[in-house]
């Protein structure tokens, strides 16, 4: 209701009936204006959008309820004591008295007076178990007294401690004393073994380390954060490639997979000399194809189990199987490429041939993207050899291989892609500036 | 890639009983299949179109009955799908009387009048020899044209149809026997030497109504879906991508040659 009022004021057209918001039941528009819950005024109810909240926070019937007429209620200024206090202090407060009977029971807030149980040790126990080179008895006693007073709030205790000690040191002393006491007082070691202090003892070095690391992270500048994120992403990528390469070593089954492998094998031997991290990359060109073959087979099997399915659903499953081995970014790039090529992301007429072709096209695009990535790595590898230092991996450029304009649907003339391609295309012909220096030196040496 | 192209050739070889736009299927013939007479990798697909046609009532429109619409499931070539489909259950919006409409005879459609657009679930139940499990389709009822600012006209309806195919990946023998030569679906090519039992003759030519939608009253508004355009698009795209792949591969091998020489070249 509030929505339409606002639109009226602003002079906007009311929403057309086709919007899903007003898909409600036909009789709803009539119902809403007639009924509203009693107990709150119409305007107030309209503030909530004219619809009751899912979980009524206030029981509306309680709002206007008056106390039953037979009760006589008076308020009196009466004394009270609290069991939470050790002294017998008597304070006064207003009390709701019903029918001349004052309420009984303890002060209602006394139950919140909880405190920590601090163990107390005798001097004898101290002599036998608790002596420590760094801590004197007086200090330990004082520590325990503070723990009792301040409810184990170590920050406060550290502040008040006469001898300056760090929070970690105080904690360490307190917990080790407790542990020693528990062990000493226990009947048998087994009794004590389940106590949380025994199971997870306080480790002062770990605590120090943790706090140091935390403060480092918190005080990082934004720049540092970005760098860290990049490094982590890189590390993740490398581990994933290693994992994929390891999986690719598993025996491969059907003829299809071998066909895929043969094509990629031509790339693998050439790179056998290159350093280990880069040799993983040709393997990754192979790995996705082997993984996805298995995925397709299992998807087909699961589709068969259904006994009946829609072809669009089947295509979706196969596309998912194809995309299971790649990241979200790659999936988005595949979709972008499809759009650039003028192909519907979901075929409008999904017959079997159309779906098969669509799937094949997607697979080919994946291969294409993989090859692009390989090319980039090869380039960076090449340039790193020349410069003698490990060049940072170039970011995957957002160059779109198939820009939409020059490619008309079903064009027959061969399209010159040379001028459209940035970066890698130049390699073969024009040496980039980085190469020039070594060449010059060669010439001069001769 | 190679296997799928070979299967396509098979499909093109066989004479199609139904309309030429619909080919489809895979029939892998292995020795074990023939021995067991198990029908592996034979699928039957039924091309369907589902959607709605909605007319604006114009002068006769009231606030709650502004459009007259019909939602339906039909064969894509307007053939009779009741050979496969036993009944269709349309689940309409709960504000309608009897929102669950069960249609047990073709044409499988529901006509109503109303004002709102909502999602309709159509559950297709198949004959017992076809499949036990029902299949659900979802369609968003569209009454208002995309172009909101244009005037509503009583003459041209708003039509939204979607094409899809019901795939039965492992049809039973009795199913195959019953539907061979039916035009509503694409029948697979069977392994050589495989004989289907003759279908039981059902004499109902006079009694049963025709279940196809070729002469449907709304037939003039039906969309006809052709896979030709899409295939053309896809073929062109694939060609481009393949050419590009070849180019990249050449570039990579060139680079590798370069890298090799650099590594084995003199250290400066």
UniProtKB/TrEMBL annotation, chain A:
InterPro entries: DAMP1_SANT-like (IPR032563), Homeodomain-like_sf (IPR009057), SANT/Myb (IPR001005), Swc4/Dmap1 (IPR027109). Residues 434-446 have a biased composition (Basic residues). Residues 266-277 have a biased composition (Low complexity). Residues 23-40, 379-388 have a biased composition (Basic and acidic residues). Residues 1-40, 261-282, 379-446 are annotated as: Disordered. The keyword Nucleus applies. SMART domains: SANT. This is SWR1-complex protein 4. Pfam families: SANT_DAMP1_like.
UniProtKB/TrEMBL annotation, chain B:
InterPro entries: YEAST_sf, YEATS, YEATS_dom. Its main location: nucleus. Residues 231-258 form a coiled coil. Keywords: Coiled coil, Nucleus, Transcription, Transcription regulation. The keyword Transcription applies. It is found in: Nucleus. Gene3D superfamilies: YEATS domain. It comes from the Eukaryota. Residues 38-182 form the YEATS domain. Residues 1-36 are annotated as: Disordered. This is Transcription initiation factor TFIID subunit 14b isoform X1. It comes from Camelina sativa. The lineage of its organism: Eukaryota, Viridiplantae, Streptophyta, Embryophyta, Tracheophyta.
